[in-house]
Amino acid sequence: MSAQIIDGKAIAKKVRDQVAQDVAELIAQGYPPPGLATVLVGDDPASEVYVGMKQRMCKKLGMESFSFRLPADATQEEVEKLVSELNADPKVNGILVQLPLPKHLDEEAVLRTINVEKDIDGFHPLNIGRLAQKGREPLFVPCTPDGVMVLLEESGVKFEGAEAVVLGRSNIVGMPAALLLVKRNATVTICHSRTKNLPEVCRRADILIAAVGRVEMVKANWVKPGAAVIDVGTHRVDDPTKEKGYYLTGDVAFDEVKEVAGWISPSPGGVGPMTIAMLMRNTLRAAKIAHGLVEV
Ligand code: NAP
What we know:
Number of strands: 11
Bound molecules: NADP nicotinamide-adenine-dinucleotide phosphate
Shape: globular
CATH topology of the largest domain: Rossmann fold
Number of helices: 10
CATH architecture of the largest domain: 3-Layer(aba) Sandwich
Mean pLDDT: 97
Radius of gyration: 19 Å
Helix content: 25-40%
Number of domains: 2
């Protein structure tokens, strides 16, 4: 039987609609619109596209966006100075430094400079540290893994006692996804480039999160029948037979895996739209934190 397709676009719309409604209520109570500051260093075209999407989405949901740009040769001091100014600006509730930064910059040091109450990407070590601790909650959960969890929840997938396998251990996806699953009482295995017998380990999973960055690596025989499979991977593959000269795909061989899985999120159309929706939700949360409306 074919898997239930998890519609990331529809679930993301639901999250965004709720954010827009909450923003309108906040403003009706006399608070200023939540504000997101984006910091773009250099002129990477993909980063420009991502930052533009985030700014437009902010406006669409009734929030303010402030755009800051520094040249590709900006110094560490200049980037950190800008972040410090944004930390001090009450109109700015969330600060997003678009990654990756140019190679000469210390990314970790820049992220550490962001006030933890404005860290809407959830990458500050304090937020990740709280995520890893039992009985503690981060101020913000990183957007992509947060979106993964919402996709699973909205699909009715059960976490308690489930065997979960996370393929990938990056700071922004794999590791926080694994920590979130542990918090929900799943039994979690984290796989990486040195994991042995990968297909066999993946086949144990009731919940399989593919965040490995390899085109269609997860095949049907890696998947337990009935498992929930979330494809975080996003790839543009050159293909002269397509009108655009390429096609988009993920870390999962969707056509074959959907015949085995119980649920599957496609790529594109799964996790991608969730990431930006969760960023909007985090920006709203940052505004509520600033106004003392939520306890942290
Ligand atoms: P990453 O930093 O490159 O991490 C990839 C992880 O996969 C690493 O832990 C690596 O292991 C592991 N890995 C790589 N090749 C492997 C192999 N052959 N066998 C087993 N493990 C292997 O990537 P990322 O930033 O987490 O992103 C993962 C994917 O998600 C990418 O396709 C990216 O484009 C996509 N992504 C999508 C969104 C979205 O919004 N939809 C957001 C972020 C990322 P080691 O740790 O041992 O190197």
